[in-house]
Amino acid sequence: MKLAARAGRIVPSPTLSITATAKAMAAQGLDVIDFASGEPDFDTPDLVKDAAHTAIKNGFTKYTPASGIDELKLAVVTKLETEQGLRYDKAQILISCGAKHTLYNIAEALFEHGDEVIIPSPFWVSYPDQILLNDATPVLLDTHEAEGYVVRRRDLEAKITPRTKAIIINSPCNPTGATYTRECLQEIADIAERHDLVIISDEIYEKIIYDGIRHISIATLGPDIAARTVIVNGVSKAYAMTGWRIGYAAGPKALIAAMANIQSQSTSNPTSISQKAAVVALRDGDAFTQHMVKEFDRRRRYMVGRLNAMPGVSCPMPTGAFYAFPNVSGLFNRAHAGGKIQTAADLAGYLLQDAKVAVVPGEPFGSASHIRLSYATSMETIARGWERMETALTKLD
Ligand code: PMP
Ligand code: GLU
Q: Where do you find CATH 3.40.640.10 in the chain?
């Protein structure tokens, strides 16, 4: 059977595959510590689960409008207005099966052969592959650890060509944990206006933010910017609802309508029950999020402290999301019984084999010098993981 060329352009999601490997090893009885999973370890709050039970009991178990129920769209409209001061009409909102699906709908509705899409690097693994699946070209824009991974105006301008269609902004960022300042967002916005670019603003980690920093959406910089921005968000991270699969987009009417058509011909509506649960999460879930983020903050300091105490490793303090992204190139060229560590992938392989600790190597995020460790796992697990990593790393020659 001859498959379509697009199927050969991409790889399976590396974050999901490494997590699946760690879970499979655990299922075989191996005591694996998972720093790879990109999801909160907290259980979904009871008030959300109760809303789902009620939906089931009330028979809310049938198709809904393909673009989502009005009640959830209006909850999103209210959230955007009260929390971010952004005004949208419900025709500007689309509910999808997770933010990943939202991003995919955007790529399908916007991109075609010949288009270039700028992605600041390091980046979340699915952006380039979703662009490739839609026949367009991802253009990576390097950002640097020493500068807090901000996008510099000159670097961005150098990447723009007549084919540039859009730029993806992800603040707080997976994997670096960087949050964009207003000044940095303003520079990007000015360039986007000058070159008529669409801005895709992935704000899924919006509420997982530390040190008193406030999340800023680029869409708040003015109506002209909002008119060229599509905000991507969802309930997965803020309300520990990764399995419920609810994401949303807020953006220009014509784009949202095109995405809704695509959705109506592909997945139809996101799960009816999850939509009802998401209404309650958006409306009443914030106390839960605050509690969770406080705990993530404690773990963040511990994880980053341990990383920086390890010779050959350096890690800036992330200001958002729940990942540490240390530079591990100081460990390269060291040897172990099974070979030599020359890349982040070699190190991740060694940690999994020798210490039974799963981390994600930096390569699929655009860096062979880093690894990603999630601290969305209990303090006790983090401490145990560290004991093992320390033993494994001190064995290196
Ligand atoms: N964007 C980023 C940056 C992410 O890390 C994730 C994690 N899965 C997503 C989007 C998608 O989230 P979900 O599909 O679970 O809503
Ligand atoms: N976004 C999370 C991560 O980066 C979950 C896995 C995925 O969807 O890629 O690990």
A: 63-284
